[in-house]
Design goal:
By secondary structure, the chain is of the alpha+beta class. About 50% of the residues lie in helices and about 10% in strands. A four-stranded mixed sheet has the order 17-16-18-19, sandwiched between helices. A three-stranded antiparallel sheet has the order 7-8-11. Strands 1-2 form a two-stranded antiparallel ribbon. A hairpin with a 5-residue loop joins β3 (about 45-50) and β4 (about 55-60). α13 (about 385-400) runs parallel beside α15. The relative contact order is 0.10.
Length: about 675
């Protein structure tokens, strides 16, 4: 928490505290919840007036400096608060205390049973998919209207629902759900919300056509979006989607990673238009005039301008919402409105030649843009957001091995060996372990900037990191990552679990200045810690058969039972939790036990084959019987895996066993045979 005292000549007894909501999400959650209940909605910037004991007295979102358009200005609000504090103090204090008491009771709900009723997971999944389908924008893609946020949990649910429909013999419905997802991902990637020159995605689009964004770039968006584009590639084998996932990850590698491997949290939306400018402007780093493009590309500029809809007067004219205040007159936000193949055909050249030339043009613009004043870099390393990015880097290291040999890449994609993405993931995880984890207490700190923050790790930090570590392990990382994930899960249970009522609180409850402990369920721009935790518990009990397995399953069942009403009545608010509930209801997850020398090419190829097909109800367990620590772990935690490893190890090849409840198929040593076996259901969709 950063505190600043501001001088008000008539309110000398007021102290203003400025809270970084990324560093203290627990504090932000208390007062944002209060404002949402008070006004029926909320947002940032958030202004709340507190009593000396931190009870809320009055709150709202943005207040202009002065009275304007019938809205009270901040000075007017201050005077009214001062008057009420002087003359109606008792009433204000009682009101604030009552509000906190009511919120505490409402937000710490308990389960009425130990598990969800039969059939509810499937109904919630169907209901959420139906409501999202009704909000689908068939013209511009995405779900809902402007402003449009790329809410990856919605994409995850629709992909999962499509998979379930196909497995239940409903290919028509499966194709329809998948079609919505793929078109939405295409529109987002071609829109201005995507940084075509430098890679990555901006926060949201102010219009319905994904064109003019709020230009901030957030790590939590990049990690989640890279993962859903990887999923789309797994299903379609279309390199359009693998290219976009690489585009995001290469942006992070280039601009967002510190020397020790920690991944930074954000880049601001605004920056100076030129060196020495006294004020910053939204999007200044990213937008172009036609003259700038003409000067950079010369005689070739016309091709680029046609491809990216560049106009002399500026191109922010596709919607009345794109530029309502005429901030971008004469400016262009790059957007692809025409198909690349059609433009290549118009010029009489092969598509790859066209894309290579376009890449050369983008490289020239990238070099010029690099000399502009950059937006401010928020170089905090936040554990939860790093967990999301670790997951996407780890998964990319295996899924992208499915790209056809000879695939060409151009700016902003580097085209690296996918193994390099695993190195990034492991380096980020090691940074957190080294700087933000206490080996003695097994506790996390929330963030790092010039040293660990004082804020403790919150539920999201544990849950998102555990998810990333499980992906690291399943994608071929050391068993040490699985061991750490299990240790973190134990500590998460100790700090956050409501053992009587079920589910996890968002804070440890050790700071008396934080007035509410909330059981968060909303899957928004970030998934909720409870949704991710439920999936983590499902994944853990599918690997481990010791006494811990029953504990993991019971905690997952009890957690989801807490949110029974939400799953019944407001499934669209909890799409990832709908997926988690269905995953838990699946009788047996598919397990792929992969046995061999970890360092061998054969093992690596089989690992890539194991991850090639999209199946969220699949667990991959790589094991090298020649590594003593691995065998000791599995002997203690799942003797079936250790027996399989011993009985199927061969020094000259890697072997996979595809199992359900560890009842397994005959050993497979061919990557193609393994991939065919695991992808039986998905090939009919596309």
């Amino acid at each position: 928490m950063v505190s600043k005292a501001f001088y008000f000549p008539y309110f000398s007894n007021m102290l203003v505290l400025q809270v970084d909501r990324e560093e203290r999400p627990d504090v932000d959650k208390v007062y944002m919840t209060y404002v949402q209940v008070l006004h029926g909605g909320g947002g940032w910037p958030l202004s709340v007036f507190l009593s000396p004991d931190l009870k809320p007295l009055l709150g709202g979102t943005y207040f202009p400096p002065d009275d304007k358009y019938g809205r009270p200005g901040f000075k007017t609000i201050l005077r009214k608060v001062k008057d009420a504090w002087d003359n109606k103090r008792d009433m204000l204090v009682k009101s604030g205390s009552f509000a906190i008491e009511q919120l505490s009771e409402a937000l710490s709900t308990s389960a009425g049973a130990n598990q969800l009723p039969n059939g509810l997971p499937q109904n919630a999944l169907r209901l959420c998919a139906e409501k999202l389908s009704k909000s689908y924008d068939s013209r511009f893609g995405g779900f809902g209207s402007a402003p449009k946020f790329p809410r990856p949990v919605e994409i995850q649910l629709m992909l999962y629902h499509s998979k379930k429909l196909e497995e239940s013999g409903k290919p028509g419905g499966a194709k329809e759900s998948l079609k919505m997802v793929l078109f939405s991902l295409q529109c987002m990637a071609r829109g201005g919300i995507h940084d075509h020159i430098g890679g990555g995605f901006h926060r949201y689009s102010v219009d319905e056509c994904w064109h003019v964004p709020h230009f901030e770039k957030m790590l939590y968006d990049q990690g989640q979006l890279a993962n859903v584009y990887l999923d789309a590639f797994s299903i379609t084998r279309d390199v359009f989607y693998s290219f976009i996932s690489r585009d995001i990850l290469d942006y992070l590698r280039r601009d967002m990673i510190g020397s020790e491997g920690g991944i930074f949290s954000a880049e601001d939306a605004d920056s100076a238009e030129f060196e020495g400018a006294t004020r910053k402007k939204e999007g200044a780093f990213y937008i172009w005039t036609r003259k700038e493009i003409d000067d950079i590309l010369g005689e070739h500029a016309s091709r680029f301008k046609e491809h990216y809809y560049v106009k002399p007067s500026g191109n922010c004219d596709l919607s009345r919402m794109s530029d309502p205040h005429n901030e971008f007159t004469g400016k262009n936000v790059l957007i692809e409105r025409s198909d690349s193949s059609a433009l290549a055909s118009k010029l009489g050249m092969p598509i790859q030649e066209y894309l290579d030339i376009l890449g050369e043009y983008k490289k020239k613009l990238f070099d010029v843009r690099s000399k502009r004043p950059r937006p401010h870099l928020d170089d905090k390393v936040i554990v939860s957001w790093n967990g999301l990015a670790i997951s996407s880097f780890a998964r990319a290291s295996k899924i992208l091995k499915g790209e056809p040999q000879g695939t060409y890449f151009n700016v902003p994609v580097v085209g690296c060996d996918p193994n390099e993405y695993m190195e990034v993931a492991e380096k980020a995880a090691n940074f957190i372990r080294r700087h933000l984890y206490n080996e003695q207490t097994h506790r996390l700190q929330h963030s790092f900037r010039n040293g660990p923050s004082k804020a403790p790790g919150f539920l999201d930090d544990y849950a998102f990191l555990i998810s990333g570590l499980l992906d690291l392990f399943e994608c071929g990382g050391s068993t040490d990552w699985l061991v750490w994930a299990s240790e973190l899960q134990d500590m998460q249970d100790e700090l956050f679990l409501d053992r009587e009522g079920g589910a996890y609180f968002n804070t440890p409850g050790e700071d008396p200045s934080v007035l509410l402990r909330v059981k968060e369920d909303h899957d928004g721009a970030e998934p909720s810690g409870n949704s991710v935790s439920a999936i983590n518990l499902v994944r853990l009990f599918s690997m481990i058969t010791s006494s811990k397995s029953d504990h993991y399953r019971q905690n997952a069942e009890h957690l989801l039972a807490v949110f029974e009403t939400r799953l019944k009545d407001m499934a669209m608010a909890v799409p990832l939790m709908c997926c988690a509930a269905d995953m838990l209801s699946v009788p047996w997850r598919k397990q792929v036990v992969l046995v061999g020398h970890r360092a061998s090419v054969e093992f690596e190829n089989m690992l890539a084959a194991a991850h090639a097909s999209y199946d969220p109800n699949k667990t991959v367990i790589p094991i090298d019987p020649t590594i003593t620590a691995e065998m000791e772990f599995w002997e203690a935690n799942n003797s079936k895996v250790s027996v399989m490893a011993r009985n199927n190890f061969a020094s000259d090849k890697a072997v996979a066993l595809v199992c359900q409840n560890f009842t397994c198929s005959p050993p497979i040593s061919s990557p193609k045979s393994l991939e065919d076996l695991l992808s039986k259901n998905t090939s009919s969709l596309v």
